[in-house]
Amino acid sequence: MLLYTTVGTNDLERAGRFYDATLPLIGYGRQKEAQGEIGYGADGDVRCRFWVVEPFNREPATYGNGATIAFEAPDRASVDAFHAAALAAGGTDEGAPGLRPFHASFYAAFVRDPDGNKLVAVCEKPV
């Protein structure tokens, strides 16, 4: 349904270090970089599906209250690794890895990036 998603940053270099440390652990990598933006996607994808950008209007980047970007992870170990890497790379904990009440196999970890954007890595596969 979604073509791509963006989050804003006030420090593109810092954000790039954060996402380079976390997204490969759940199957996504940096695919493009241009002035003011970095794009990430899965191997073999025809486009970047997740962009980290400096706001076009040059105003400070802010995060959306109630907004969360969810990434599909290949397995529960990847969710655990994503969470640990996010904290090590300057993110903050918003919910340690574990099962959530959404359904029996919804295993997730929630973090905020250094700009405050809320992210979650999710594996919905049963053990």
UniProtKB/TrEMBL annotation:
Domain VOC span(s) in chain numbering: 1-124
UniProt xrefs under InterPro entries: Glyas_Bleomycin-R_OHBP_Dase (IPR029068), Glyas_Fos-R_dOase_dom (IPR004360), VOC_core (IPR037523)
PROSITE patterns to which the protein is assigned, alphabetical: VOC
Domain of life according to the entry: Bacteria
Protein's name in the database: VOC family protein
Taxonomy of the source species: Bacteria, Pseudomonadati, Pseudomonadota, Alphaproteobacteria, Hyphomicrobiales
